[in-house]
Amino acid sequence: MTNIILLGPPGAGKGTQARHLTDSRGMVQLSTGDMLREAQANGSEMGKKVADVIARGELVTDEIVIGLIREKIAEGAEGGFIFDGFPRTLGQADALGELLAEMGLSLDAVIEMAVDDAALVARITGRSTCGGCGEVYHDETKPWAADGKCTNCGSTDVKRRADDNEDSLKTRLMEYYKKTSPLLGYYYAKGDLTSIDGLSSMEAVRDDIAKVLG
Ligand code: AMP
Q: How far does the centroid of ligand 1 lie from the alpha carbon of residue 85, in Å?
């Protein structure tokens, strides 16, 4: 069983690689972004509370996301967990360490997917996902088929995130550099960090991650 963190700015490809790892290795993806969007879609009180913060591209409180992760870790995962978009602050990183220790689990690797900002704007602003299965599309690099059906599940439900626009992205990047990038030093000092080139092809990134996982 392997537990890993995928670390990188919005648009680095964390979600895409996490999906691949769930399919190929039976790992469980824990994306706090997905959980928060689900809470919004369900119309829960918490979902309503965080909607504006997310739309602006700011981070929601540590308390909320740590609560979400605590519940999921308690459910366990035979193939291990992929933490995607969590932790995003040093407080969250400390909390994750404690939660894993309480469950007798360890963190096996932290993989930084390094990309430059210029590539992120293009990646994010053209992004969509399938509402049926979560398959990730991009207007330029992986467009929807002419019949409008998802090649994976046949759904025609094209989803675009409200925060995937240039304004929110600016804030999301600033939040990343101010609050999340210090985690690179934190995990480097613990000896857990491996950096890979997130700008290479999806397959090359898959291979690099596979090498780290062994
Ligand atoms: P993501 O899908 O990971 O890009 O997350 C979308 C948005 O959800 C972020 O811009 C934040 O507003 C919020 N969010 C997701 N994960 C976290 C986290 N670990 N800490 C704080 N806010 C988060």
A: 6
Angle at 155 between CA 43 and CA 40, to 5 degrees: 10
Using CA atoms, how far apart are residues 176 and 169, in angstroms rounded to an integer?
10
Say which DSSP state 94 is in: H
Element (H, E) at 194: strand 193-197
Q: Whose CA is closest to 27, among 36, 37, 19, 35?
A: 19
CA gyration radius, the chain = 17
**Which strand (E) or helix (H) includes residue 69?**
helix 62-75
How much is the pTM?
0.94
Q: Is 176 in the pocket of ligand 1 (CB under 6 A)?
A: no
What's the rounded Cα separation, in Å, for the pair 185 and 189? 6
- What residues act catalytically? 14, 88, 127, 161, 172
Spell out the alpha helix ranges (H) of 103-149: 117-125
Residue 110 phi, psi (nearest 5) = -120, 120
What are the pLDDT digits (tens) for 168-187? 999 999 999 999 999 999 99
